[in-house]
Amino acid sequence: MESTMTILPSTTEPAESPTLKPTRYIDITAGSQLSSNADIGVAAYLLFIWVLSLYANGVVLIGIARQKGHILPLDILMGFLAVSNGLLALTTYPMVGVSLISHYWMFGHAGCVGYAFVTMFLGLASIFDLPGIAYVLYSTVSAKHTVSTVRAGQGNTKCQCGIVWIIIPAICAMSFLLCMLPIIGMGEYGIGKHGSSCTIKWSTKSLISVFYITILMITGFVIPVTLTAIFYYRVISHLRSLKRRYVNMDFAKKWTKVQNDTLMMTLAVGICMIVCWAPYAVVASWETFFDPSTLPVQLEATAAFTAKSSTAFTPLVHLCFTKKCRQWLRRTLFCFKHSDGSPSQQTSQTQMTQLIPKSTTMPSVSVRRSSLPSNILDQ
Predict the structure, then answer these.
(1) Structural domain boundaries of the chain?
(2) 75, 53, 52: which is closest to 64 by C-alpha?
(3) Is the C or the N end of the chain the one with fewer CB within 10 Å?
(4) How far is CA 188 from CA 112, 236, 269, in A?
(5) Is 257 in contact with 351 (CB distance < 8 Å)?
(6) What is the DSSP string of 269-317?
(7) CA–CA gap between residue 194 and residue 277 (Å, rounded)
(8) Model confidence over 259-290: pLDDT tens digits?
């Protein structure tokens, strides 16, 4: 009896080559992994965040523009943060909203790559801006206002903006480089786990993709957060050391109040950004280095849309902690016709917005001789 032997095809796939390969065609036929009601609810929430982001960031930019010749380096970096957040909301949120209502990604392969690139670029630019803001604040406190100028009662109120035009191009260049690498094959863009937006394919286990994601996590989250914390710690330490060395206590109180208000505003903006982006960074790291099937789809979607919420919450924090921004908000609500108060109140507010007064000498007081007693006149 003749026996036949059937050779079964091998089920072992060859190991993926570590060479760079451009982003492959993205399969968009899977559809949303959330329920229809969940998609509609998330779309409504995203619409609210979209409107709030455009309005709040617009108020910040209008307020900064109305300062005209009094724009400081810190204002420029805050304006850059508002521009990146506003552009992120303006260009990408409508695409996600339409896809959520349709329950699948509506814009094909090219739209997915473009959406992921813009989202990553503007998101990284916003995160990289945080250490820039902290550094400018520290340099303003430490270099511009030394102990000698404080004791003299004077400060260098003319801030140089040259460092800002180095920080902003560096932020854009670093963000662009990290976003271009998946297009040339180091990493990969694809549909997110919930199926209605695009991002980095965190669950890809190839060696070169894991290497790219590791570099992205370190340079795009760990290093900016660490540098931001270091600069704020040094700002607080420097303010405490200067406070103990003041001679003119009236000048010290005014200067310390202005510095503390600025510190609280920038610190609150940084904390808001980190809190919004931290869940997404944790979820992405888990999908990369651990089993992605253990993460529920709802958790991944919540982390992704929490990160998107930063575009609205960050300018709102800016508005809440800054007196000038609250005035800008009232002006926009009343179509720029709302009065900020009497001329005397406006003068005092203008003086308090200066970082350091030009002089701490006592004002001169004129007294009529006829109002003085004769014994004082003799003396």
Answers:
(1) 36-337
(2) 75
(3) N
(4) 11, 41, 31
(5) no
(6) HHHHHHHHHHHHHHHHHHHHHS-GGGS-HHHHHHHHHHHHTHHHHHHHH
(7) 18
(8) 677 778 788 888 888 888 888 889 988 888 88
The pTM score is 0.74
Question: Class assignment of domain 36-337?
Answer: mainly alpha
In whole angstroms, give the CA distance from residue 293 to residue 276: 23
Distance, CA of 5 to chain centre? 66
Least confident range from 129-138, 293-302, 366-375: namely: 366-375
Return the pLDDT at 103. Answer: 86
SS3 104: coil
Model confidence at 317: pLDDT above 60: yes
What DSSP character marks residue 72?
A: -
The C-alpha angle 375, 378, 379, rounded to 5 degrees, equals 90
pLDDT tens for residues 70-90? 778 888 898 999 999 999 999
- Look at residue 359 and give its three-state secondary structure: coil
